[in-house]
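Thread: Newbie trying to understand structure tokens

Hi all, I'm a second-year student working on a class project, and my supervisor (Dr. K.) asked me to get a predicted structure for one chain before our next meeting. I've only ever worked with sequences, so writing a 3D structure as a token string is new to me. If someone could post the tokens and maybe explain what I'm looking at, I'd be very grateful. Here's the chain:
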Amino acid sequence: MEVKDIVLAVIMVIGGLAFFLYGMSVMSSGLEKMAGGKMEQALKKLTSNWVLSLLLGTAITIVLQSSSSLTVMLVGLVNCGVMEVSQTVVVIIGANIGKTFTTWLLCLMGVDTEGPLWLSLLNPEYFSLIFALIGALLMMSKSGSGQKKNIGNILVGFAVLMYGMVLMKDAVGPLKDSTEFQQLLTKFDNPILGVIVGTAVTGIIQSSAASIGILQTLADNTGTITFGMAIPIIMGQNIGTCVTALISSIGVNNNAKKVGVIHIAFNVIGTVIFLTVYEILDMTIGFEFSSWTINSIGIAIVHTVFNILTTFLLLPFAKYLEKIADLVLPDKGAGEDAKHQHTLLDKRVLTTPSVAVAECENASQNMALLAVETVLLSVSLLTDFDEKLAKKVYENEDKLDNYEDRIGSSLVQLSTMALSERDSQVSSRVLRAIGDFERLGDHAINIVESAEEIHDHELAFSEGAQQEMEILTGAIEEILQNTYQVYKSQNENDAANIEPLEQVIDYLTRDIK
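---
Reply by user tm_fold:
Sure, no problem. This is what the structure looks like when written as tokens:
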């Protein structure tokens, strides 16, 4: 190949890779919007059962089209205290099965286009164009629902992804006649080098699906990749996919870092076991297929067999993966602030907008509960002042300010992202509510200041006034508790009962005055 041909081929591969990654992002975004906040709810509710955890990890990885994205999400959820490390282990194992879906999807590139029409239409070069047209019409439809637009995103994303594969296929086609390329491939007979290359390429582009797609393209269009060359590379790609999770672990708490350690431990142990057994058997009894050329379907089979075997081999030892993480990152002990860590959001959750919106809503509910507790605590100080409890009110007010800042800034960032209609509505509602919750904290401070003044001047309520205060305090507690429950449940029927309580409080206030 001439220098000109090499440069043009490299440009086409890079461009194809860019289309592939962008298409995958658009497609996973559409799938994620269709799922809404259900992924986050499922992660928190279903991870107590290992079978459901395994299926959940598989399903969410298929939706996100990335095991790395799921692991980053888990790092964020553990960092903000929503999940425990032990809950993530089997989910991570399930993610390794889920990522094989894309590999099989890319096998469609190998469908023969010279056969019957119906067979040719199964090739993405043709049916992805139809998907692109349908998807574009759904996205541009003014009367379409949010779900229709999400389906449009999925179809267009898939079409762009496949177009990237077509570009890479056209770019690497001439390599089958290149003697330089043939000489380069002979070096990949070394399995260690294959693992290193697979790890490095996947780590650099941070997508095992994309790196496997490149390998499948080379295999189908050069006819020079053998099973013996491909197997170590595929195993290296499984290790390389952990790089994203390790990067996301920077700056998080100890438990969240353990999620990244578990992910890489699972893939490294699986690779060492699988590759060692394969190489020993190949040297002793000899695998005839090792010298056979491999195609995209063969790569998908190897990738799937490796991940499924590794899953069922290591699944019984899931708790030991957590122990490995504990050995690598020993617990340092939790400080006072760690007890409240679950109330704060983690920026890594923002990588999955639907999950981030759900977490903002959960955090706002925690904020609402803290606001209710703070107001009730401050009211109790009017008749029974305690300096320690007064200090607690001031501390809680600072926490409410922190809540408003963290939730508000997260919602502002989310507003720049493509959200589903439901998530947009939830974001707007939460943004309005957190301002009201923060004002409850301010009112609590005003009440405490009044209580301090009463205490400092050694004033006391008369017996009649104390009885009136008890009635008023009871009414305030009832309306605050009911309002919190309504905000949490979003039950409109229960919300109708709040206003009559407010009228009762107005009457009691006028009567006391």
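A couple of things are worth pointing out once you decode it. Residues 386 and 435 are 28 Å apart (CA to CA). The two ends are 94 Å apart (CA to CA). Feel free to ask follow-ups in this thread.
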